[in-house]
Amino acid sequence: xxxxxxxxxxxVDGRVLKLTNLDKVLWPEVGFTKGQMIDYYTRIAPALLxxxxxxxxxxxxxxxxxxxxxxxxxxxxxxRPPWIRTAKVWSDGNNRWMYYCLVQDLPSLVWVAQLGTIExxxxxxxxxxLSQPRMLVFDLDPGPPATxxxxxxxxxxxxxxxxxxxxxxxxxxxxxxxxxxxVPLNREITYAxxxxxxxxxxxxxxxxxxxxGIARAIRTAASGRPxxxxxxxxxxxxxxxxxxxxxxxxxxxxxDPAPRQLPAPDAVDRAIGLLxxxxxxALDRRFxxxxxxxxxxxx
Length: 299
Hints:
Helix content is 25%, strand content 24%. It has helices at 34-52, 106-114, 148-164, 191-205, 265-278, and strands at 8-12, 15-19, 25-27, 32-33, 57-61, 71-73, 85-91, 96-102, 117-123, 135-143, 170-173, 179-184, 218-219, 228-232, 241-243. Helix 3 packs parallel to helix 5 (265-278).
């Protein structure tokens, strides 16, 4: 047994944690280990923790790596340390109270990573006000022949429409092949109001032809028609969750060395320009929490 396979105790900001199986490979195709994932989460914590704080967390655990069985864990494990905070949330589906983990600090983040939690799915609400969403999120996924360039253009259309409604929006990559557009809602509002607004954003911004053989710029995956940029709105219903910003991805290949067909250079340049105009990279700006829109008040 290698030294990394043995349990080790570490002191994280005054909390003692036992880490196990640090050399277990979670991403077989690139050899990325559990220890490396914990190291990543430790390094990215200054950018990640503001997006986790006070939000009930659903753990997406892959104890045997991204090629093995996974499961969602909403109830915070009973064997949690006494200093792990939880949020008490009523579940209509389970007809009982659920106790979600709250990741408020670095020790809590390292502890959930030690469980083999690769993805961190947060509520769109803070636990103190579960009926009040703090953001709208739009998932943009390209369906061939559409590319991320088309996602960028759709994100630009969405941003312009939000600005007309006195709202700011921020864009980030989704961890796969698309984008996510975030709209902060730092004001008193309910899901009953955000759901029709999100649907209106889809209807108003739907464009029939953006060239390059793409029949429609925005459509829902349920439409069944190929091509275009598929739109999902996971933030419009109470209880929905979203991948936290800067979280690890469960793609089998974190780094894909195989050659692939890329968009034309001018399209790549255009995509970079569009993204740069919307938001700088997370690490360059420490990925601050989005500012509220004009006329709204920051809590």
